Amino acid sequence: MPEITIYTSTLCPYCTMAKRLLTAKGASYKELNVDSTHGLREEMMQRTKRRTVPQIYIGKQHIGGFDDLRALDLKKGLDPLLTRC
User: Could you give the CA distance from residue 10 to residue 12 in angstroms, rounded to a whole number?
Assistant: First the structure.
């Protein structure tokens, strides 16, 4: 399974939904909480060119936020990414 990185914030319901979806798929992920580490939000914005959380990477591929992750799952595109070695 590729490494999954998710930028989150503490009170974000979309972050919670993204983590639940990934967990339901049996995927483990590295969570980076932008509220708890100084400079992490700026790193996320520079890396993704977006300001909102969550921001999700599967391997080196930027998925986007929860809506993007969910849309990918509905199109049956998420499982193949998660099982890719």
Answer: 6
Tell me the per-residue pLDDT of 40-82, one tens digit each, with 9 for 90 and over. Answer: 999 999 999 999 999 999 999 999 999 999 999 999 999 999 9
The count of other CB atoms within 10 Å of the CB of residue 77 is 11
pLDDT of residue 1: 77
Domain count, the chain: 1
pTM above 0.90, yes or no: yes
SS3 call for 24: helix
Expressed as residue numbers, the domain containing 30 is 4-67
CATH number at residue 18: 3.40.30.10
